[in-house]
Amino acid sequence: MENTKCLIIGSGPAGYTAAVYASRANLRPVLYTGMQPGGQLTVTTDIENFPGYPDGVGGAQMMDDFRAQAERFGTDIRFGNIDSIRLDDRPFLAVADDGTEIAAETVIIATGASARYLGLPSEEKFKGAGVSACATCDGFFYRGKVVAVVGGGDTACEEAAYLSGLCRKVYLIVRRNELRASKAMQEKVLRTPNIEVLWETQTKEILGDKSVNAVRLSTKEGERTVDIDGFFVAIGHHPNSELFRKWLEMDAGGYIKTIPGTSKTNVEGVFACGDVQDPEYRQAITAAGSGCKAALDAERYLSHCPSRS
Fold first, then answer.
1. pLDDT at residue 185 tops 90
2. Which residues have a catalytic role annotated?
3. What are the extents of the domains in the chain?
């Protein structure tokens, strides 16, 4: 059985930032990366809206930089998953996928969220090469171009509206004959001249060579092909919170609830940061900021429990 003052579950900007702060506070954190070290950003080509990178940076490179900084201050970074955890008593007990058992005085959850995709083979093929699940992350690269957004809820309408300010043309691909978005968002989309809604339409295949150049659609009238430069999937995200469902309070979507203004969960000594507790912003910069908060909250928690830290 290993012992640690701070166990960080998940990498990405939230987990690695938490590790930097926890290490500098001499908590000697142990961080398990999960099966995708660096999280969703590792499949993003270029990031141009994160402070400190004036010329932009590849997502994988930025996560390498985050990791190197955490390692520099002494974080014990381990590739792998935490397969099970008990949060009903302190120290908390976790078991990694290699069988390692860990007793932790505090736990920082930074497991992120995963975008929901359509499940098409061509979608997987062009991820990072014209297929994206984040307009605010990647829309900049499609200025003056033609893009498609798939989805009919608030997220899809927001993405389409955002892209309409950058792109020459935005197709909104809607499976039904109506939008599920709020009335205000529907009105905004329908009155935007460069957004064309394709009703009762489903995506059959994303086409291209090295990058996306068209999409094949199925409609009531038959199949059609539309030329596009980018394809944005906006059918929602699901937080990677299943491991903690037995112990932590979550909203209807499975996002871990935290006390407003903090990273504190309903279990003392357990903190959540990044996209696993953020259904609203889901940006690298907000995830990093919440990782900082989680480490500071953990440090303060331990400072009030001197006999057990």
1. no
2. 134, 137-138
3. 2-114+237-303, 117-233
Region of 80 please: left (phi>0), alpha (psi -120 to 50) or beta: left
- Domain with residues 2-114+237-303, CATH architecture: 3-Layer(bba) Sandwich (3.50)
Specify the CATH class of 117-233 in words. Answer: alpha beta
Can you spell out the DSSP letters for 35-103?
SSTTGGGGG-SEE-SSTT-TT-EEHHHHHHHHHHHHHHTT-EEE-B-EEEEE-SSSSEEEEETTS-EEE
Give the whole-angstrom CA distance, residue 67 versus residue 245. Answer: 28
**The pLDDT value given to residue 309:** 41
The Cα–Cα gap between 210 and 208 comes to 6
pLDDT digits (tens, 9 = 90+) for 35-44: 877 777 776 6
CB 104 within 8 Å of CB 91: yes
The 10s digit of each residue's pLDDT in 129-184 is 999 988 877 888 999 999 999 999 888 998 999 999 999 999 999 999 999 888 98
DSSP-assigned letter for residue 34:
B
More confident residue, 50 or 108: 108
Residue partners of 184: CB distance under 8 A and separation at least 6: none
The whole-angstrom separation of Cα 286 and Cα 212 is 29
Q: How many residues are present in the chain?
A: 309
Place of tokens 């829309």: 139
The C-alpha atoms of residue 182 and residue 155 are separated, in whole angstroms, by 10
How many alpha carbons lie under 13 Å from residue 99 in its C-beta half-sphere?
A: 0
Q: Are 110 and 18 in contact (CB under 8 A)?
A: yes
pTM of the model: 0.76
CB 198 within 8 A of CB 219: yes
State the Cα–Cα distance between residues 33 and 30, nearest whole angstrom. Answer: 10
How confident is residue 306, by pLDDT bands cut at 50, 70 and 90?
low
